[in-house]
Fold this protein.
Amino acid sequence: MNKGIEKSTGDWIIFLNAGDYLNNIETLENIFSKIDLNNYEVIYGDEVRVSTKLNKEENFLKARDIEDLWKGMVFNHNCMFAKRSSLLDSKFDTRYKIIADFVQIFTFYYIDKKRFLYIPEVIAKIETHGYSKTKKAYLVRTLERYKFVKKYKNDLEFKKHYLITFINFFKIFFK
């Protein structure tokens, strides 16, 4: 993704994975021609998850409150537009194999104090399969996120949230 940032030429960047696509042809027009974006570095919205294994079943997911980001992803990175200048100043941390997108968004919001704008619109349709949906990836992602966030938020609320998250993981995946 860092190479893509360097090679890009536009003002705003969105990252779509293979199998993901913008919601419809009006998505870009609805965002970039109808809203004053001068005061924001990050724009994010909702998603629809599409299952290619289940006959393209669609599941709408509303982005959650950005203040809850420390608990985990509150929106999919594929539903986020970021200013190219912000991405050039703070590239993805490639030490993180699964949560680089989370670390980037967390850094933008909590550390760099970038201004975010939520748009109540489906930005992209996201394919629901791949490595990141496996049990192993879920556990690795949660452990990496725990280690990263604890450097910045290590209070009782944080500890309680992650304790419950780990307990639920083991209940669900190891019945």
Remarks:
- The mean pLDDT is 89.
- The chain has one domain: 2-129.
- Residues 3 and 91 are 10 Å apart (CA to CA).
